[in-house]
Amino acid sequence: MMSPTFSLSCMSNWLCPLHFPDFANTSTFRLHCSQERSLAPPSVTSVGQDESIGRIAIRNDHVLRNNSPVLQQNGLPPLVSALKASAEQNVASFHFPGHNRGRAAPASLTRLIGTRPFVHDLPELPELDNLFCPQGPILEAQTEAAKLFGSSQTWFLVGGTTCGIQAAIMATCSPGEFLILPRNSHISAISALVLSGAVPKYIVPDYENDWDIAGGVTPLQVLKAIQELEMEGKKAAAVFITSPTYHALQQGADLTVQSTHKVLCSLTQSSMLHMSGNIVDKEKISRCLQTLQSTSPSYLLLASLDAARAQLSESPDVVFNQAMALAYEAKCMLKRIPGISVLENSSFPTFPAIDPLRLTVGFWKVGLSGYEADEILYGDYGVVCELVGNKSITYAFNLGTCRDHVQRLLSGIKHLAATYVTIQQPEERVLTVHAPFDDKITSLIPRDAFFASKRKVTIKESIGEISGELICPYPPGIPVLIPGEVITKKAVDYLLHVRSKGGDITGASDPLLSSIVVCNV
Question: pTM for this one?
Answer without folding.
Answer: 0.84
